[in-house]
Amino acid sequence: MLQQQSIIVPQISSYPDPEGRARKVLRWLSQQRIVEPQLSTCVAGGNGMGYALAEGARQVLELPSGVTAEQALPFGRPINGLTVMTKRCIFTPDKGFLGEAGCPECRREIGEALFDSLEDWMPARTDNFTCPECGHEDDINGFLFLQPCGFSNLGFIFNNWDGAYFKADFLAQFAERLGQPVRLVQVRY
Fold it and tell me: How many other CB atoms are found less than 10 A from the CB of residue 84?
C-alpha cells in the first residue's frame, strides 16, 4: 500500500486554544470508535505516538463498488493512526505539489509571492496575505489553491487512511465541531 496522509485542517491560521479543541475532537472520534482513545506507537515521526485506527473508522468511508475498507484503511499495518498537530504548520501535498495560488478578488496567479510570504506566516508574525496585484488582504487560507492545502496551528493527520473515500458528512461533522470550514489535504509519498 502506498504511504499517504489524509489531513483535515480548519481554514484559519490561528485557531484559538488548539489543544483544547483537539481534546474535544479526539473525544468525539474515540466515542465513535473511529480511533482508539489511548496513545500508542502507531505513527511515524516525532515520538511515534498517535491514536490507532479503530473498527468504527469504516463508518466514515463511502466506498465505490470494488473497493473494500481494507484497501482504504490501514488495518493490520504498523502505521495506521491519527497524529494531532497543535502548532503552526503548512499542510501541502508532497508529491507533485505545484505551488500555485490565486487571489479570490482579482483571480490572478500569485503563488510565488504567497509562498514567499510564508517566512512571515510561519513564525506567526501575520495570519494574512495581501495580493500584490490588487491589494486584497485575507487570512492566507482565504486564497485559492490549485491543489488543496492548509495553513493552521491545528491539523488532524490520518496516517495511511485514504481520505478520497471520506464521507462528505464526516468532513461536515469535523467542520461543525471545529466551528470553521475544513480542507482535506492529501499527501502521497
Answer: 19
Residue pLDDT, tens place only, 5-41: 999 999 999 999 999 999 999 999 999 999 999 999 9
Alpha carbon distance, N-terminus to C-terminus of the chain: 11
Which cell numbers in the block locate residue 135? Answer: 491589494
d(CA 183, CA 186): 10
Sign of CA dihedral 48, 6, 62, 96: negative
CA quadruple 72, 186, 22, 39: dihedral positive or negative? positive
Q: How far is the CA of 67 from the CAs of 62, 156, 174, 185, in angstroms?
A: 10, 24, 24, 21
Backbone phi and psi for residue 161, each to the nearest 5 degrees, phi listed first: -90, 135
pTM > 0.85: yes or no:
yes
- Residues near 63 by beta carbon (within 8 Å), at least 6 away in sequence: 69, 72, 165
